[in-house]
Amino acid sequence: MKYRIISGVLGNALLLVVPFNAGAQKKKIEKPNVLFIAIDDLKPEMGAYGNSLIHTPNMDRLASMGTIFLENHCQQAISAPSRVSLLTGKRPDYTKVWDLNTQMREIRPETVTIPQHFKENGYHAAGTGKIFDFRSVSREQDEQSWSEPYLRAGNKYYQNGQRPMLYWYQNPENRKIAQKYIEKANEKGLSGNDAIQYALQYFKPSVEAADVEDNAYNDGAMTLLALETLARLASDKKPFFFAVGYQLPHLPFVAPQKYWDLYNRDEMPLAPFQEKAKNSPEIAYHNSGELRSYSDIPPLVSFSDQPYGIGLPEYKQKELIHGYYASTSYVDAQIGKLLDYLEESGLIENTIIVLWGDHGWHLGDHDLWCKHSNFEQATRSPLIISAPGYQPGKTQSVSEFVDVFPTLCELAGIPVPDKLDGLSLVPVLENPKNEIKEFAVSQYPRGQNIMGYSIRNKRYRLTYWIGDGFRSTQPYNDSLLVAKELYDYKRDPLETENIVHRLRYRRVYRKMSRQITGFFESQLKQ
What we know:
By secondary structure, the protein is an alpha/beta fold. It has one domain (2-21, 57-169, 205-523): Alkaline Phosphatase, subunit A (3-Layer(aba) Sandwich). Helix content is 30%, strand content 19%. The protein is built from 16 helices and 17 strands. It has helices at 22-26, 57-65, 79-88, 92-95, 104-107, 114-119, 172-187, 192-200, 218-234, 257-260, 289-292, 314-345, 376-379, 404-412, 426-430, 506-523, and strands spanning 2-7, 16-20, 33-39, 67-73, 124-129, 207-210, 240-246, 253-256, 351-357, 362-363, 369-370, 383-386, 393-400, 440-446, 450-456, 460-466, 481-488. The strands form 5 sheets. A 7-stranded mixed sheet has the order 5-7-3-9-12-4-13, with helices on both faces. It has a 4-stranded antiparallel sheet with strand order 14-15-16-17, with helices on one face. A two-stranded antiparallel sheet has the order 1-2. The protein starts with a strand and ends with a helix. This is Arylsulfatase A. One of its GO terms (molecular function) is metal ion binding. Its cofactor is Ca(2+). Keywords: Calcium, Hydrolase, Metal-binding, Signal.
C-alpha cells in the first residue's frame, strides 16, 4: 500500500496520510460514485459565473468539466428550509420546514432524502460538514440518511490540535478576548456550549484573518477528513455517495491571511443600488438582523428608526465584501484538494460531482445584507453538475433545487421516487439549450401570517405576498393578496422599480399571474 502525505501541520509531529491504492481506485464500478458538495451562503460569485475579480480557480475548474446552471434558484433563502427542500426534492410547503427550528422528521417522518435513497439502492452513503442544517434534523444529522455514523473532524485534523475559539476564531488576539469571556461564563457556573453562547453575546466579530494553515479553521480540517474518507470509500466494493458541506462563506468571514491577501480592499465592489425599489412594498425587506448580531457592526440605525435596511458605512461594507471574497477563495482552495485527489486517483472518471450553494446572499443591494428575501440576490444560487459522459457547457435554462434529486437518480441509473416536486435536468446536461420548465418558485415568510411566493422566468420575477396564513397547499383567492411585485431583469437588473402596475407590462403580469395561481392549484394535490 502506498501513502501520500496530505498535510504535515496537524500537530508537532503528526502527519495525516491518505492510502493511495491504485488498484482499488482504478477498478471498474458499474454505478458512478457521487461527490455532493454543499457550500453555505455561496451566491453565484465566481469566475465561471462572470465575476472577474474573485479568485475561484477550482470551482471554475469544476465548472469547465460540467454544466453551469446560470438561472438556478433556491426554494427558500434560508439554510434549513432550502437544504431540506433540496435533499428531499419537495417544496417547503410540503416539508413544512420554513424556519430554523422545525425538525424535518417530526413533521414528515416518512421523508426519503437523497443520500437515504442512494443508500437504499446499493450505495454507501457518508457525510461530513454542513449538509442538513443541524437545527432541522437529529444530532446525528438524520441517521436514516447515512450508511455509517456522521463524520466529524476530531482534534487531530486541526493545526496543532487546536480548535477555533467560540467555534470560529483563531487569531491570537481574538482567542485571548474569547477566553476572558469564557472564564466569566465559568464563574457564573456555565460550561461547554452554554459558556460559548454567553461569550458570543459580548464578543462576536464578523471578520477575522489569521496567519495560520488552512486546517486551523473548520473547513480546512474537515477537508483533511474528507480526503481520508474518499480514500477509504474508494477501496470499498460499493459505489459511494459522499456529501461534503462547507460552512463558509457564512458569517463570520474567517479565513487564513493568504486568502485575504488575494484582494485589495479598495477594489471591493460596493452594491450600485442601495435603496428600496420604487413602488415596492415594505414587506419585501428586512433589517439584516443576522448581521446585526455581530459585535463589530456599528449600531448606526435602530430597528424603530428605519423599518428596513441597516445603513452600514462604506468602510464596513468593503470589509465585509472583502471577507466574503476571502472566505469564498478559502473554500475554493479546499474544493481544489478534493478535485486533485479525484483526478490523481482516477476516481473522477466515474464520479458525478454536484456543487451547490444553499441560497444567494445580499451584499448591500437594497441596503440589505445576508439572505431572507425573495429578491434576486437572495434566491439565485449556484449549481454545477459534472457527470461522466456529458460535455461541459453553460445553460440559461431555468432550474431550481428540487430538480437535483431526480437528476442524480437518472444520472446514477437508480429509480426516481414518486411524487418529487422537481424535474430531471439530464436533458439540459445533454443539450444546454433544452428547457424543462418556464419558471422557478421561491418563497419567504414574514411573521406567522404572510408568505411571499416568487416565480422567476428568464426575464421577469413576479412576487405575491399573501396573508391570512396562506400556504400553497391551500385554496387561493385574490382577497388574500397583501402586496405584489414585478421586476424586469433585462431593463432593470438591479430591481430599482416595481413595475407591477405599469400598463406597459400588463400582458406580462397577466401571464405570470395565471402561472402563479396555476402553481397554487397544482400544489393542492400534494
